[in-house]
Amino acid sequence: MWIVLCAFIGLPLLLVAYFELGSLRRKQMLNKFQGPSMLPLVGNAHQMGNTPTDILNRFFGWWHEYEKDNFRYWIGFYSNIMVTSPKYMEFILSSQTLISKSDVYDLTHSWLGLGLLTSTGSKWHKHRKMITPAFHFNILQDFHDVMNENSSKFIDKLKNVADGDNIFDFQEEAHYLTLDVICDTAMGVSINAMENRSSSVVQAFKDITYMIKMRAFNPWKRNEFLFRFAPEYPAYRRTLKTLQDFTNEIIAKRIEARNAGAESISQEDEFSRKKMAFLDTLLSSTVDGCPLTSQELYEEVSTFMFEGHDTTTSGVGFAVYLLSRHQDEQKKLFGEQCEVMGDLGIGRDATFQEISQMKYLNLFIKEAQRLYPSVPFIGRFTDKDYIIDGDLVPKGTTLNLGLLMLGYNDRVFKDPHKFRPDRFDLEKPGPFEYVPFSAGPRNCIGQKFALLEIKTMVSKIIRNFKVLPALDELVSKDGCVSTTLGLPPAEKKKRDAQIHKYDPVLSAAMTLKSENGLHLRMTPRL
Ligand code: HEM
């Protein structure tokens, strides 16, 4: 009896003492940083709130309190620094050694393994070098055909829901489009998600992304061991299996087709296209003289599927939402479309060159990514001590880089809540003051692909539809965006009280999403 009682009380005490000792050095060093005061054991966890939106608001609240500079906070024994100073950004993003990702990325491991996004050390260096040619200009041009083809299908589908009166969730529609594009470009196959929304594979891609984000904000489900007891776990395992089987089958078929030689493949065969998919580049590549293993192929292809569709969904989604709210900018964009594409250009595909001539569209997308970056935070983990901008940052610290906060810094962007695409022509942010695609050696390898895709889709939407908000009253009267993110707390409170149910509420999921969806109406132009 006494032994059981001692174990019952003693074991937790031992554990606490173990973690307390383990974090002592970090505590001493990080005390020099500004940040909220914390409680024993929980740190600042009790202040974070329960929903992703609460967490986002808490971060912005602290960011204001600490004069839009870095601050430290603790979640239990986990030490974190929210990084928003350009000097820190520069040091971290330029470093060739500070490249290990924070533990939130572990949530992707069971699906992605250690692909380009999550790997570190020499594996990352070698794979990054090997994968870079997959985004060569010529390949991107081939991918542009896929983007054009799918966005034409999308426009046709949209015409069924967008009749001028119907209020619909654009984000939901765009998701299937970007999934079709990434599937075709990454694996060279079409899953036709726009037509087959309820297919198990299409749903699996949707569900897995949701589950990764949901777990990121739930302290219990985030833990691999505890998640096994969660009610969602069986469905999660099934989803994973669906994706693993699907991707592995595609890879196996592609290898078989390559081995058999192109001649023996019939015209109807899904692999008969001449276009190089990302998977083909991987199959032709070697690392240290050896071809990639099946596991490595799986990891890299899955990484592209993950990184390449949710990010562009919110990229296109928020750009189109901003069109609805800022009608003058929409008119200006339509004018540019007519100028670049000519009078008969409404219905046809824009070429690669024409897209690059759409200068105002480029500024528009830049401004949209400033306000609603598709990747709002990225994380690094210090596996040794670092001196950053004169501060000693101890080993074992999580660095959360607030890419989102950068866009709301009024020291860099004048009137940050005003939607002004041409600010990027007038105010030039420093190289580490605006980095929606990150920067340095670990920046987004798909940046050119993503921008091409977003511009191709938005350009086609502008030419085919007039985009309207769910209700006319949601058109911006003062040029301000609807988000209250980054406003000083008192002003935020006032504006939050006026938020309409159709205004998108942003959450701090790994990819910024609107909790309400993006409600719009569209009127076909022809
Ligand atoms: C609007 C769209 C996109 C945005 C804003 C974006 C942003 C980012 C950011 C911020 C990172 C750095 C992540 C980190 O350091 O943890 C990143 C990495 C990455 N992105 Fe993107 N991304 C977008 C679209 C894409 C697309 C379309 C692809 C693939 C076709 C892609 C593939 C990748 C990969 C593989 C990495 C990891 C690179 C590495 O660690 O070497 N991204 N992206």
TrEMBL record:
Its annotated compartments are: Endoplasmic reticulum membrane; Microsome membrane
Report keywords, A-Z: Endoplasmic reticulum, Heme, Iron, Membrane, Metal-binding, Microsome, Monooxygenase, Oxidoreductase
What is the topology of this protein in the membrane according to its UniProt annotation? Peripheral membrane protein
Signal sequence coordinates? none
The record's principal subcellular location, in a coarse class, is endoplasmic reticulum
Q: Which InterPro entries match?
A: Cyt_P450, Cyt_P450_CS, Cyt_P450_E_grp-I, Cyt_P450_sf, Cytochrome_P450_Monoox
RNA-binding as a keyword of this entry, yes or no, is no
What are the coiled-coil residue ranges?
none
Q: Which Pfam family would be a valid example here? A: p450
What this protein needs as a cofactor is: heme
Q: Which domain of life is it from?
A: Eukaryota
Q: Which CDD domains match?
A: CYP4
Does this UniProt record's set of keywords contain Transcription regulation? no
The family this protein is said to belong to: Belongs to the cytochrome P450 family.
Q: What is this protein called?
A: Probable cytochrome P450 4e1 isoform X1
What gene does this protein come from? LOC108019591
